[in-house]
Amino acid sequence: MIISPKEFKLKDGRIAQIRNPEEKDAQGMLDYLSLSTEETEFLLRYPEECGSYTPQEEAQFFDQVNASDHEAMLVCLADGKVVGNCQISWNTRIKTRHRANVAIAVLKEFWNQGIGTRMFQEMIQIAEKNPDLLQIELEFIEGNSRARALYEKMGFRITGIKPNAIRLKDGTLLHEYSMIREIRR
C-alpha cells in the first residue's frame, strides 16, 4: 500500500520524512534493523538474527508490501538514513478482517523526537480508511515503559498478558502485553 510522503520537523528542529520504503533504502534498512536490535532488549530479534537478509531480498520485500492491499510499511528518514519504521497489516479472512496489527521501532538517537507519534498517526489513518477494520492491535514487552506510554497516548489499552512469552539470552523471562485501539465508526 502506497502513501504520500510527508515531511515534518523533529522536536530538535531537524527535518524528517515518512514514506514507503524504496529499493534504494534496502541497505539502509538492513543497517537500521541491526542497530535497532542492538540498542534495546524490547524488539523480538537479536542483531545476529538480522544478518541473513541481502539488500536484494529486502528490496523484493519492499515491492511486495508496497503492492499489497492489506499491509503497509513506512520508513522514517532523517540525516540521510533510515531512523525508524513501522508496519500495519490485516487479514482478509471474514472472521478476522476487522483486526489490524501494528509494529514500530525507532533508533535510540531519535527517541523523544516525535517520530513514533507521527508514524502511529499514519498507521491509524490507514486503518481508519479501511471500512472493515474495527480495531488495531499490538504487543509490547514487560519493562518497555516508553513504548507503553506512546501506545496509551495513541489510544491503546492493555487487554491481556502472555506470561513468560519472551526469553532473553541470559534466561530472563518477560511477559508480553497485548493492547488494542478501537476504531470508532
Which descriptors would you attach to this protein?
eight-stranded mixed β-sheet; 8 strands; alpha+beta
Structure report:
The protein is α+β, with helices and mostly antiparallel strands. 28% of the residues lie in helices and 34% in strands. It contains 4 helices and 8 strands; from the N terminus they run ββααβββαβαββ. It has helices at 26-39, 55-67, 115-129, 145-153; strands at 6-9, 15-19, 71-78, 81-90, 99-106, 135-141, 157-167, 173-182. Strands 1-2-3-4-5-6-8-7 form an 8-stranded mixed sheet, sandwiched between helices. α1 (26-39) crosses α2 (55-67). 27% of the residues are buried. The mean pLDDT is 95.
Q: Uncertain runs with pLDDT below 50, 5 residues or more?
A: none
Query: Measured on Cα atoms, how large is the radius of gyration?
Result: 16 Å
Number of helices: 4
Question: How much helical structure, as a percent, in the residues?
Answer: 25-40%
Task: Determine the structural class based on helices, strands and strand pairing.
Answer: alpha+beta
Sketch the topology as an H/E string, one letter per element.
Answer: EEHHEEEHEHEE
Shape annotation:
globular
How do the strands and helices of this protein lay out in sequence?
Blueprint: E1 6-9, E2 15-19, H1 26-39, H2 55-67, E3 71-78, E4 81-90, E5 99-106, H3 115-129, E6 135-141, H4 145-153, E7 157-167, E8 173-182
Parallel strand pairs: 5-6
Antiparallel strand pairs: 1-2, 2-3, 3-4, 4-5, 6-8, 7-8
Helix pairs in contact: 1-2
Summarize the structure.
This protein has 185 residues and is an alpha+beta fold. The chain has helices at 26-39, 55-67, 115-129, 145-153, and strands at 6-9, 15-19, 71-78, 81-90, 99-106, 135-141, 157-167, 173-182. Helix 1 (26-39) crosses helix 2 (55-67).
